[in-house]
Each structure stands twice: as C-alpha cells, then as structure tokens.
Design a protein that fits this description.
Length: 405
C-alpha cells in the first residue's frame, strides 16, 4: 500500500534506515563513551535476532512463560451502549505480569544472554518497567540493576518490593528532583562504566538507536497476532485500531500489524487536566521537534528548550516525548494522534470493568475511552483497541481518588 509517497509493502525493510532514522526523527545522540556500547548492541541485534535459534527460543518463551498468544475479546455489552459500531480488545492485560512490557523485556534480556552479558541495567519511574525487567532477569538468571529516584521509591513501594522479591538490585538516585530524569542519567552513567558486562534495557520505543527499532520489533508480535485473530474471528480486518501512547511501545506493537492495510489507526495521548503546559503529556499533539534522552522526536519543552514537566493520571503515560517512529507516522498522516483527559479515562475504566468484567490499567483506559468516543462518532464498523495492561496496580489510587462507582 502506498501512503503519501511511502510504500508500506517494504516499510519495515526501510524504516529505520541504518543510522536509526525514520525520516528526520530518531538517530543516536549520545556521548562518545556510549557510542561503542550502542554499536555493539546494534550489531548483535542485527545478527542474533535473525538467527533461528534466537527466534525459536523467544517463541517458546512467549508460549510457555508469557502465555501468548493473548486473545481478542469482543465487547458486546459495552458496544451495545454506544450505537452500531462494535468494539474489540486485544488482551495484553493477560500477558504474564499484567502488561505488554514483558514482550520487549523478555526479548531484551534474551539478547543480553546471547551476547554473553551477566547483567541488565535500566531506570524506572512508576516501577512498571523495572518490574517487567526484573521478571525477565529472574527468568534468565541474570543480575538486574534498577535505578530509581528517591521520590519514586517512596511513591511506588509495592513495585519496589516486587523488584526486590524478583532479585533485582534497586539503586536509589538522590540527585535533583529525584525522579525519572535523574534515574535515566544515573543509569546511563552506570552503563557507560559497566557496558562490557551488561546491557541497558530501555522500556519503550524511545532512546537512541537501536532501541526504538528493537522494542518495536519485540512488540510487533501483538500486531501480528491481532491481525490473524481478527481475520479468523470476523473474516475481515477491523475498520480502526486504537492504542494509548506514552513512550509508544504497546501502540507501535499493534500498529505494526496494520500499517500496510486499509485500516484507520489512532494513537491516544493523555490530556491529563487540560491543554496547559504542565497539565498533560500529549507530546505529539502539542509538542515540537527536539532532542532528548538520545533521540530526535517531537517533545514538550519549557521556555529553556528543556523537557517540560508533564502530568497524567496514568503514570505510565507521563513522558514528555514519544518514540521517533510515532513522530514520523504523525507527520506522514498514517496515524492520527488525539487526546483523552483524566476524567474520560476514569469513566472508561469503570465502564469496561462493570460492563465487561475487565479491569483495565488507567493507561489502557485512555484507549478504551477513545474507542468509545470513536464508536459514537463513526456509528458503524469495528474498532480494535489494544488493552495494554490490567488495573490491579491502580486499585489503591482509584479507591483513594475516585471511590467505587
Ligand atoms: C508503561 C505502560 C504504558 C505506556 O507505555 P508505552 O510504551 O506507550 O506502551 C501503557 N500501558 C501500560 C499498561 C503500561 O504499563
């Protein structure tokens, strides 16, 4: 399929290019001392990930440990409240450990094992990436160092406990505001010193090349499965595919399966409390081009051009940029990016729970809310929503702030 001058039949062969660019976005803007380390990961990825040994081990893990393929569920009762359009969800909430993040963490740690490394390093904010990586490291018997700001360690005590139970070493970062940004800096610094024995595992389709590509490729299983399953359930493709976009990994995963099809694709960003800078994290919708955390993309900046403070009720979505491939697909017009605020996501959280017996993560509830809105607007057809994770982690927050509806 051709779309605005891009041939999507060969899209995955051409994007990213060999330097990690999707059009003008992507690349690797890293200090000299990290360049050799990133090149090593890129070289290893290109060779190891095409080997049938690696591929069959990853497939076995997905089947026997992660519980893949995850099903697609038809939302009969929720659809019935919205008109004639029919909603479906891809159940990434049923992945082992409760979200899509394990898809790329298992891939990254398997790569580390094939590269002969003994340790994986990462930062975490809300702790979800840290828990997924600690799970993968425990499975493979690798050491795992998770850098986390002191403020986040206090806020996310249950996730800190999970990481420790899984055997990870949680390293407290006390610099600056003691949150995600400082944790990223500390983790990169540790990696520069230790890269001979470990690899860095990024938690989304962000960071320097090759991570946006690697994480997309590991998540693409979601789109491949979903396309096959939807065809066998209904005999056709969905009219629309919807996913929430934080860094952009669950969305790139499901979008990958449908980019070359006549399917409308929607990325949903968190509008938080509203469109004022600082009140949301809708980086593609309201941001502009810039470089942060080692890659060129669209980002939210403050007056000094630094990454702006961001907010969303969904802590997994509050990142001031999104992966370079999203910026590219946005400019191309192949994916439409739109927003859902805190209140609508919470309404969708309760609606999906009550009408379908599925308690979604608040992140995923953003995609559900958008699917519900789209159903009312288009009034017919089928909409497939990626349900990136389950809501167990959000229970205390929901009860404290919204009560039980
Ligand atoms: C982390 C997370 C997200 C956001 O990350 P992406 O990289 O944008 O997918 C979305 N949903 C859940 C359940 C998460 O844990």
């Amino acid at each position: 399929m051709n779309y605005n001058g891009i041939n999507f039949d060969t899209y995955f062969k051409n994007y990213p290019d060999k330097n990690g660019y999707y059009g003008k976005y992507g690349g690797a803007y890293i200090p000299y001392n990290l360049k050799a380390a990133m090149d090593e990961i890129t070289d290893a990825y290109y060779t190891i990930c095409k080997s049938s040994k690696f591929i069959s081990e990853l497939r076995k893990i997905r089947r026997e440990f992660q519980g893949r393929p995850t099903p697609i569920s038809y939302l009969e009762r929720l659809s019935g409240t919205l008109g004639n359009a029919q909603l479906y969800v891809k159940r990434e909430d049923l992945n082992h450990s409760g979200a899509h993040k394990l898809n790329h963490c298992m891939g990254e740690v398997l790569l580390a094992k094939y590269m002969g490394k003994h340790k994986v390093i990462a930062e975490t904010g809300a702790g979800q990436h840290g828990v997924a990586l600690a799970t993968a490291a425990a499975y493979f018997g690798l050491k795992c160092d998770i850098y986390m700001g002191s403020v986040d360690i206090k806020k996310q005590a249950p996730n800190v406990a999970r990481m420790k139970i899984l055997g990870a070493n949680v390293i407290e970062v006390t610099e600056g505001l003691q949150t995600l940004k400082e944790a990223v800096d500390a983790a990169f610094e540790a990696y520069a010193n230790e890269y001979k024995d470990c690899i860095y595992c990024i938690g989304s389709v962000v960071g320097p090349h090759p991570f946006p590509m690697m994480v997309r490729d590991f998540q693409a299983v979601v789109g491949v499965e979903a396309r096959e399953q939807f065809l066998s359930m209904t005999g056709e493709l969905p009219d629309a595919v919807v996913a929430c976009v934080g860094g952009g990994s669950n969305s790139m995963g499901i979008f990958s399966g449908f980019l070359n099809d006549p399917v409308d694709i929607y990325g949903v960003e968190p509008l938080g409390r509203g469109p004022k800078l600082g009140d949301h994290a809708a980086s593609i919708t309201y941001g502009s081009e810039g470089v942060m955390h080692g890659f060129n993309s669209i980002m939210l900046k403050d007056e000094d051009g630094e990454p702006a403070p961001v907010y969303s009720v969904a802590s997994g979505l509050d990142y001031p940029s999104s992966g370079p491939e999203h910026a590219f697909l946005h400019d191309l017009g192949r994916v439409k990016y739109d927003v859902i605020d805190d209140n609508d996501s919470i309404d969708a959280f309760f609606a999906l729970s009550r009408l379908e017996g599925i308690i979604p993560a608040i992140e995923s509830a953003h995609a559900v809310a958008y699917g519900m809105k789209l159903a009312k607007e288009i009034g017919r057809g089928s909409i497939l929503i990626n349900l990136s994770g389950r809501g167990d982690k959000d229970m205390d927050y929901i009860i404290e702030h919204y009560g039980i509806r």
